[in-house]
Amino acid sequence: MKSDLQISQTKKLRDITSIAKKINLKSTDLTTFGKHIAKINSIPNRKKNAKLILVTAMSPTPAGEGKTTTTVGLSDALRKIGKKSIACLREPSLGPVFGMKGGATGGGYSQVLPMEEINLHFTGDFHAITSANNLLVAMIDNHIYHGNKLNIDIKKIQVRRCLDMNDRSLRRIHQDGLRYERDSKFDITVASEVMAIFCLAKDMDDLKLRLGKILIAFSKNGKPIYARQIKAHGAMTALLKDAFKPNLVQTIFETPVIIHGGPFANIAHGCNSVMATRAGQKLADYVVTEAGFGADLGAEKFMDIKSRTLGAMPDAVVIVATIRALKYHGGVTKDKLNKENLDALNKGFENLQRHIQNCLNQFGMNVVVAVNRFKFDSVKEISLLRQLIESEGVSMHLCEHWERGAAGATHLAKDIVKLCQKKNKARTLYGLNQPILTKIETIAKSIYRAKGIKLSALARKKLKEFEDLSGVKRMPVCIAKTPYSFSSDPAQLGATLNHTLEIKDLDLKNGAGFIVIICGPIMTMPGLPLKPAAESIDVNSKGVLEGLF
């Protein structure tokens, strides 16, 4: 069987200007990066917006679910049945690419191309975001070095340097050789506030405004200090000016794809940029986008954070699942997932069932389930799963777009078109005027089925500190927790009930406009695994990349 890379390398790509014509963009609307990648410089101001389709998933497992592959396959299938579609995706981070998760361009015959360039440096957006973030921290240290006019408390600096790489040695650093010393750390770029701002800003003015609002520190008198006070936001915007334009590429099926931004969903809000989604809404009739991890994290944040800024709710939602992943949640070990096990499938279904019920009842979404088929899924397992899903009042589609491309998901595409014709009753989970604790409790009880929340002494102290700041009480909350469980304990699989959501810390992303609620041990700088993917990646004597998935 060919690898994703081998499949991608057999496809002769169309010139990106030809792809742009499919969505009525001229060559003058683009800045090209070679023949197959472009930045979109200008977007027509069409009154009518495209139908918005959100792809989410059950709680992720080591077996993998194929959410990005489904996003690409569905967009291709919509075009195959005659609809003008665009996929909007997040950019891959080098951390997971060289670590253990892999890239973010789909797989099989539902891929975004050129996958090598996209998964590696692409158009340099992450470099620009990293540079803007690190400029800000350098200017903070410089301000302190040259007299500290704002009286910054070095123990209460709120921002950290970042790097788009998994490197556990940077989780703790000691800065020396200055006129002062301080302990700090690095975050991975996709966990930085600059990344979140980049993906939530509506235009260039909004980008600069949000950068200026970043809470950089507290003074020794307890007063908040913002990036605009050290005049960092203008130069940061200059670094991001070109990166802020969405990137245009193509699928194997030659469907246009906009890839832009990429915050993690367990730490940040986990969605591609508002700029990219808005571009898609103006350039196509159907926009297929995704939210990171399961519906409890990515979809909730899409609804409660991104949709508020975007000004649009999903017209239809696809929940991606696999029989393998359901059996894993039913207690089967990874090495036995290929064997038929109806009891484990039945037990593991409670996880998917919870996500279906949350999307239907808590968010009012129009829902369909896409089950990515594997050759070892038995007829009995497929029949049982269809019965279980349809008993929840939603349809199930067995999808084969990984193997067959667009043809493997046309039935799903036709159902999505019908769903998008229904009245859109999608809603957010809570109101912004509600108290911060009420917002957290609403998510914990409604989505995670917790019996309550428990704040550490540090979290309570931070809550009081942040509530006293202007505008913070009206911000949405962004839960940072393990993606593998509805609880804050990754070992509790399935659909755990009546647990207590443990909140150990809070982090204010004032520029991004949300409060991060940290539940359990969340790592903002990952490490590489025992056998990182980087060990398998190489370039042969002909200059051809090898081993990239």
TrEMBL record:
Classification via Gene3D superfamilies: Domain 2, N(10)-formyltetrahydrofolate synthetase, Formyltetrahydrofolate synthetase, domain 3, P-loop containing nucleotide triphosphate hydrolases
Keyword rRNA processing: no
GO biological process: tetrahydrofolate interconversion
Residues noted as binding ATP in the record, renumbered to the chain: 61-68
InterPro entries in the cross-refs: Formate_THF_ligase, Formate_THF_ligase_CS, P-loop_NTPase
Family: Belongs to the formate--tetrahydrofolate ligase family.
HAMAP family xrefs: FTHFS
Protein name, per record: Formate--tetrahydrofolate ligase
Name of the gene: fhs
